[in-house]
Amino acid sequence: xxxxxxxxxxxxxxxxxxxxxxxxxxxxxxxxxxxxxxxxxxxxxxxxxxxxxxxxxxxxxxxxxxxxxxxxxxxxxxxxxxxxxxxxxxxxxxxxxxxxxxxxxxxxxxxxxxxxxxxxxxxxxxxxxxxxxxxxxxxxxxxxxxxxxxxxxxxxxxxxxxxxxxxxxxxxxxxxxxxxxxxxxxxxxxxxxxxxxxxxxxxxxxxxxxxxxxxxxxxxxxxxxxxxxxxxxxxxxxxxxxxxxxxxxxxxxxxxxxxxxxxxxxxxxxxxxxxxxxxxxxxxxxxxxxxxxxxxxxxxxxxxxxxxxxxxxxxxxxxxxxxxxxxxxxxxxxxxxxxxxxxxxxxxxxx
Length: 351
What we know:
The protein is an alpha/beta fold.
């Protein structure tokens, strides 16, 4: 595909700097992309692929682990997001008439009971104790206070040389750790890399937002809105530049099996220009800038996912870390459904 060349060259690892004045600080403390993602009400990390909570092999895995919990057990969900796995733990307890005290921590600023739009989940979310801005490397819980620690696509984002000893500290003797982590060659991460290539094409190859901004600014400078009179040659040139960007995006989308990251930004830019009969070009510049910020935040989030993925070598280092922290019966294996597609790594251990 047309946009793959830039991806192969690693171009999508660059943060778009079209609007350098508000360039986000790019370091370990920059999690604005995750704040935004959870604030949109997404239940889990791949809500763009499947809505609702996890289903299939992932849900079956967690239900089987939670069904072994005794009445009164305490569960800690690490990197909980909007509570996908925490909800499954609560659901398992309810199904078996067992009281399960569920806590969810996340480094992002989360408030699932306010952010998740599904009204059927609100009562359950209110029963979970969420702790935002909480690092897995520094847990504000007492020693030996949980029966199980779980994590779905979350533990691997932490410094596991510090987070694993912390989990060992807060787990009771006999407590269990279970996690599913990103695999660099999983079907999910392959799709993520494809999405990153598409966003790079939109942001840095065709420069959709730069061209749209230039046109809106030109219209504002000429005092124009949606119609009336012939635009100046300079403005016509800016119109053609945006039309060219849109055409290239459509062409790239035609050769993609999943063009969402191409067509989504293009459609929203079209909607912005469709509002010219209601808003001034200068007002719409604010809409455009927010749209660009959202896309850039999504780009950084997807990049985080690819960087968090673990190799087999990483897993062996994790085994050593688990053993040194006092975990036994350590099991590390590929996690995949019956069709054989790799979804991640499965990690289980007992204190």
